[in-house]
Amino acid sequence: MKYVMALDQGTTSTRAILFNQAGELCSSHQLEHDQHFVKPGWVEHQPQQIWENAERVMLGALKKVGSGPEDVAAIGITNQRETIIAWERETGEIRHRAIVWQDLRGYEIIEELKKRVPQEEFLKHSGLIFSPYFSASKIAWMLRNDDQLRSDAVAGKIVFGTIDTYLVYRLTGSDPSCIITDATNASRYALMNIESLKWDSWLLDLFDIPEQSLPRIVDSVGTIYGSTDASGVLGRQIPICGILGDQQAALFGQACFSKGEAKNTFGTGCFLLVNSGTEVPISSNGLLTTVAYKEKGKKPYYALEGSIAVAGSLVQWLRDNLELVKSAPEVDTLAESVADNGGVYVVPAFSGLFAPYWRSDARGIIAGLTGYANRAHIARASLESTAFQVKDIFDAVKEDTAIEIRELRVDGGLTNSRPLMQFQADLLDIPVVRPMIYETTALGAAYAAGLSVGFWENKEEIAHHWKKGKSWSPRMEEAERTQLCASWKKAVERTLYWVDDAEEVKETK
Questions:
Q1: Which residues in 312-349 are b (16+ Cβ under 10 Å) and which e?
Q2: CA–CA distance from 65 to each of 53, 61, 277, 278 (Å)?
Q3: Contact in structure between 226 and 172 (CB atoms under 8 Å)
């Protein structure tokens, strides 16, 4: 067989990508889906639209190389994490649209729990911090607001699953025995015990969620979960045998298999993960403990993660909301037309601030405006905001661990931005390296699937495929770096306490 297929279901689009045995991208097909902004702070997706797009992109990718499903050895899945769907186990009927990871409606539930439970106790069980970002508060919100849904969930009729769970369910012909999620996705529910990799009774009781409504937790690599339905869109049975949440998939695709190796994905959001080995790392500086990957029969590998809510979506906001540019590449052109940010700082706290601050009360600002500033400075400051947020996480990793990150491997759409990548290297004072093949999220899912069926022999073979593409070396003086970071911190301070009374909180939950 010629290919492994990766089904990459992201926040804004779904892609199918075919990789050959050399780890080379052979074809790709992509479709966007609708974003439903129901209320301020609420974001939903339509599961049926996501599934229909998945069917179309799989066929599209095969058509582009003139192949059929008989040429596909296995299918791997990677997905937007934390986003949760409710559906009926036996019929597949959707009982609630997907509540997206950016959605804040669980805010009030989280605030209640903060008053009852010490953060340290929650961290010990889940590896996470209290935040509406994770799946648990989204599930709890659904259960609180729909009595029939709760009754059916207690009876075991309902599944609350992340996108990987839903895709496997649909790919297998809505097989109730294939309701599974891998350990990397399960570690983002805030319901799994970070050490045992099982659903945690203390956490389930805390959020009042019945365990029978959750998928079965499985390995990320080495297990065949099921096969595609022979009567489905692909017309034959293909093993489904690798699942990784999108950020863990990028870590895997970047061949960051050893402790201390790090990657940063510049996508809709921005996510820095550092491989911390087989010991469970606990952060004191606002980072998350997550499962990096779990191979069958082996100890799980963990990672420390810093999550940023708004990165590439800020460029979309400049284009679509402010109409500052007509296309995303114009932001680069504008940014490079000025020597610096002109004293302007953008803090895109549209849904609060994620790591290392974790402040749901924050809201976005443009600070430092003078009569000298123009749209080019705003464009440059918008790009720089992502690099500043990554620097905050990078510093937190250094404070939490003895790990010395010597280079940062990067991937995602924003790595096409020359000024951003150079500024990132300058702020971190280490090389920033983009691989030859930088669709690493999909590649990680493909690797997980291919390893499971023997398409690739081992991780050493995969690591051999990794090739450096483009790199950026730091060239900023320390004094300038210090001054810029100090101004950024001042701008961040201005975003805090924006949502400061009961009515405003109510509107954004």
A1: bbbbebbbeeeebbeebeebbebbbebeebbebbbbbb
A2: 19, 7, 39, 40
A3: yes
Torsion of CA 137, 138, 139, 143, to 10 degrees: 90
Work out the burial of residue 235: count CB atoms within 10 Å of its CB; fewer than 13 is exposed, 13-18 middle, 19 or more buried: middle
Going by C-alpha positions, the residue among 172, 185, 186, 176 that lies closest to residue 224 is: 172
Q: Which two structure tokens, joined as six digits, stand for 435?
A: 């691989």
Q: Are strands 221-227 and 239-245 parallel, antiparallel or unpaired?
A: antiparallel
* Greatest extent of the chain over all pairs of C-alpha atoms, in Å: 65
Contacts of 465 (CB under 8 A, 6+ apart): 22, 23, 255
The pLDDT of residue 309 is 86
Q: What sign does the CA torsion over 425, 431, 437, 442 have?
A: negative
Helix (H, G, I), strand (E, B) or coil at 433: strand
Angle between helices 375-400 and 478-495 (to 10 degrees): 100
Cα–Cα distance for residue pair 332/266, rounded to 1 Å: 15
For residue 267, what pLDDT is reported? 83
Bridge partners (DSSP) listed for residue 347: 365
Residues of the chain falling short of pLDDT 70: 500-509
Segments in 192-305 forming alpha helices (H) = 201-207, 246-253
List Cα–Cα distances, 485 to 25, 116, 284, 427, 491, in angstroms.
Answer: 38, 36, 21, 8, 10
Q: What's the angle, vertex CA 33, arms to CA 329 and CA 44, rounded to 5?
A: 110
Instruction: Tell me the C-alpha distance between 281 and 226, whole Å.
Output: 33
pTM of the entire predicted model = 0.87
What was the pLDDT predicted at 284? 87
DSSP per-residue codes, 103-172: --TTHHHHHHHHHHS-HHHHHHHHSS-S-TTSHHHHHHHHHHT-HHHHHHHHTT-EEEEEHHHHHHHHHT
Would you call 228 exposed, middle or buried from its count of C-beta atoms within 10 A (0-12, 13-18, 19+)?
A: buried
Extract long-range pairs of 170-176: CB within 8 Å, 24+ residues apart: 170/51, 170/54, 170/92, 171/75, 171/226, 171/228, 171/229, 171/232, 171/240, 172/226, 172/227, 172/228, 172/229, 172/240, 173/229, 173/231, 173/232, 174/91, 174/92, 175/226, 175/229, 176/89, 176/90
CA angle 189, 190, 194 (to 5 degrees): 105
DSSP code, position 300? P
Q: At residue 290, what are phi and psi to the nearest 5 degrees?
A: -135, 160
- Output the six-digit token pair for 169: 């369910």
In 3D space, the residue among 26, 30, 33, 34 whose CA is nearest the CA of residue 59 turns out to be 30
Q: CB-based contacts of 215: which residues, under 8 Å, 6+ apart?
A: 159, 161, 165, 179, 180, 181, 186
Report which of 389, 127, 405, 378 is spatially closest to residue 265, judged by C-alpha positions.
389
Q: What was the pLDDT predicted at 502?
A: 39
The span from the CA of 381 to the CA of 387, in Å, is 10
